[in-house]
Amino acid sequence: MIKDLTKGPAIKLILLFSIPLLIGNVFQQLYNLADIVIVGRTLGVKALASVGAVAPLFFLIMFAIAGMTNGFAIITGQKFGSGDVQGVRRSSAVSIILSTIVTILFSALCAILMKPILYMMNVPQDIFHDAYLYIQICVLGLITANFYNLLASILRALGDSKTPLYFLIFASILNIFLALLFILKFHMGVPGSAIAVVISQGFSVILCLLYIKKRFPILHLKKSDWVFKKENRKEDIDFIYEHLKVGFPMAMQFSILGISMLIIQSVCNTFGADIIAAFTAALRIEQIATMPMISFGVALSAFVAQNFGAKNINRIRYGVIKTSMINLTLSLIMAFVMRYWGTHIVGIFIGNDKTQVIKIAHDYLWISTIFYFFLGQIFIFRNALQGMGKPLIPLTSSFAELMIRSFAAVYLAVKFGYYGIFYSGPIAWIIASIILSIGYFINIKKIIFEKKFKLTEKSLEE
Known about the structure:
462 residues; mainly alpha; 16 helices
């Protein structure tokens, strides 16, 4: 259902929009957690380590695709907010063309370079084969992830956060069923888990397409939406550039975050299977813990995009302040939950008999939870800037995060062993949150000044 976020109580709209996102993000993590639980419980710690060793690479690839499709959808949301129906359709068509081309090229490049990449990541030889098969299958099936993320992003840009949730729940349940079937019944091992992910994502794409055809006439693309005419060449190029100007920096930004995790994982891989398994389990649990904060950030992005298109700047400021306060509260609550119950959840994933692995995961959570406040503010200010079509500051903060996280992981790991890796993320969160918050306030003041200047100039002309 289409939802106009430019009218009505701002916080109520953001809250109602974020709840389906939260549930959807939890189920998205179930995709990953299903791998951890099923592989860890049925195939053992080494199999779990083979999935965990390439998890950052998988996230890097998914982050790049998600960043690009979310960036394209911001333009769609801005067109919707300004009442430009033809612009919405045209934006959807351009987004499909661009994301398909990029995804095919990216998948082919990753597939060709996969073995050298895994060697650079220091993946241990005893888990190399399973790790290679798992990530290669995910890469070759990347087109399904691309189309689901793109269609879901477009639906959210038009104010519908519920429908992508329903399809994601279905796909998550199907993923668990297929993973169990392929591993336990057909004895396909770790590759069976990857195949289950690709197939379940494919079904979610089909469901999105069927729903759009039935319920979203605004997205029924016409032939003219796909055609580029010579007489409109400049406008078409400008429109494509408008999407690339937001989509590519967001893809780069998400990729940089993935690269930093890749570097950390490469350092972690040098400490052996137990450390890899513990770090993998702890990170997956932390991803669930931070889902409420992430969901408010994504909801804010859609809210800001529509209101930026409608030129409701004061409404944007109000929404950002209130969601920032909400994320502050959530960061304190989730830190408390993770500090006292996170270890028990790790035991559920890998079995309570793996005491050494559980202890290492517990130590990571005990350190990282102290810094959740900074992480929560990153989600707010990053998404606000992206919603306004200002991707350069988030990109800059991501570069800073990459440099700091990578340096800290390598340097501190030499000084303090794997405990040094645990501090690299929190240090990067602090710096990134400072950069983003300063960037947001500078940009919002600049926009307000330009708006006042134009009004003054107009009144003088009259």
